[in-house]
UniProtKB/TrEMBL annotation:
Coiled coil: none annotated. Belongs to the COMM domain-containing protein 6 family. Residues 120-187 form the COMM domain. The gene is Commd6. Pfam families: COMM_domain (PF07258). Transmembrane segments: none annotated. This is COMM domain-containing protein 6. One of its GO terms (molecular function) is NF-kappaB binding. Scaffold protein in the commander complex that is essential for endosomal recycling of transmembrane cargos; the commander complex is composed of the CCC subcomplex and the retriever subcomplex. May modulate activity of cullin-RING E3 ubiquitin ligase (CRL) complexes. Down-regulates activation of NF-kappa-B. Inhibits TNF-induced NFKB1 activation.
Length: 187
């Protein structure tokens, strides 16, 4: 992943850093690395989502550690320069700019409380389907509901989790959501 950071164009790298800062400041639930990776690949850069996720995790760790240690911009840049393999100039420039502009805000957010240790719910989608037949069974006519939950992991990565339910399972799921909603209305 360290070699791949050199390939990311400066504008995309700046966007990634901005999203990480916003995530650390609790302004967005996470970084959509899948969407960003697709845009980077469309621009002609050969990078996969796994490498981009590693870069995002590393930058998130860098910024949150710098915030906890209350590093100045120059201290952060000096620390980056003392590494085993030097980072490309455009990477250091972006990190310097982002930290100079928004580093203090992260320090305040980190002091306010620790990050959640579980994912944050972002979105939910569902669809109704019917299995008509399969290799082993000619006539299924089996209705099911597919639910896709979008979750922002504590690392900041946004992931989709999908599962299928039978109609009775979905009705139970729906009933539990209604119960939660009624309890929340009393609070």
């Amino acid at each position: 992943a360290a070699d791949k950071i050199r390939l990311i164009p400066q504008d995309f790298f700046a966007e990634l850093c901005e999203q990480i800062i916003q995530h650390l400041n609790h302004k967005i639930p996470g970084i959509n690395t899948a969407e960003l990776c697709q845009r980077i690949q469309t621009s002609g850069v050969d990078i996969n989502i796994g490498d981009l996720a590693k870069i995002a995790n590393t930058l998130s760790f860098l910024f949150s550690t710098a915030a906890r240690n209350n590093l100045s911009t120059e201290e952060l840049v000096t620390t980056l320069g003392s590494g085993v393999s030097p980072l490309p100039k455009h990477v250091v420039q972006v990190i310097r700019h982002v930290w100079n502009e928004q580093g203090k805000a992260i320090a305040v957010a980190e002091d306010a409380g620790n990050m959640a240790t579980m994912g944050q719910f972002v979105d939910m989608k569902w669809k109704l389907g019917v299995a008509m037949s399969s290799d082993t069974c000619r006539s299924l006519k089996y209705p099911y509901v597919t639910v896709t939950l979008t979750v922002a992991e504590p690392s900041g990565q946004i992931t989709d989790r999908s599962f299928e339910m039978t109609i009775p399972q979905f009705k139970n799921f729906f009933r539990q959501f209604k119960e939660m909603a009624s309890v929340l209305e009393t609070v």
